């Protein structure tokens, strides 16, 4: 409830700052380091949700069973935090887990990769690119030809699409993806998948390592004691704020 209200407030604030086309300077004092339950001494780009604007990756330290995180570009999508390292976080996505456990076709329309912003971008360390193609009598010969040598998953045929993915010896797809197909990325158990020809659902996982890359511009801003902020999708800004305890 409180979190819901808070998020609504947070989003409204961001929309307002957007329409103003300016990053207003606030009197917020951001802590240089903070603790989040068993994660100690966290700093930028992380921040605790009770200090909005103090970072790019928002932690809910009171969540159970573990703290949760929402990343810059998708403030409404919460992941469980398993581990926080220097440049990598290990996350768990409960919704993806339920899709995978039940081998649901929704797994193939579930977008887990956080959108990059000018302030920060992310990569899923062990991932697989899947090609979801709508199959019609007309597109079928072209698609099967294009993805020859790929493995396919066709238990979503009732939704009229087939999912293609690389097997151990296929090269990454480097042509133009036809308009009836879309490519997307999901986490896999480990880079080991490339040595095995496992079934698709055995490769996919809801627990994954996510590496983050903060832009130089944003780090410079932060190092000068300002607040690096982003309006989520277009640009980042450097607001004047005192860094302190
Ligand atoms: C915020 O502070 C910076 C640096 O002092 C200044 O350049 C900028 O104009 C200020 N922005 C607003 C909206 O007041
Ligand atoms: C997938 O993994 C590759 C190789 O490790 C990496 O370069 C790429 O950024 C990853 N893709 C995503 C969407 O995270
Ligand atoms: C994997 O790809 C290779 C080369 O593209 C192909 O010869 C082989 O039949 C494929 N194996 C499976 C199981 O699809
Ligand atoms: C795809 O890769 C092959 C081999 O690496 C290369 O010869 C070809 O030009 C590439 N095609 C495109 C569209 O990039």
The protein's oligomeric status is single chain
Number of strands: 17
* Shape designation: elongated
Judged by helices, strands and strand pairing, the structural class is alpha+beta
* Percentage of residues assigned to helices: 10-25%
Tell me the span between the first and last alpha carbons.
Answer: 29 Å
Order of helices and strands: HEEEEEEEEHEEHEEEHEHEEE
Radius of gyration: 21 Å
Instruction: Provide the β-strand percentage band.
Output: 25-35%
- Give the number of helices: 5
Q: Summarize the biggest pleated sheet.
A: 7 strands, mixed
State the low-pLDDT regions, or none.
6-27
Give the bound compounds. 2-acetamido-2-deoxy-beta-D-glucopyranose
The neighbouring-strand order within the major sheet is 4-5-6-7-8-14-9
Calculate the mean pLDDT score and round it: 82
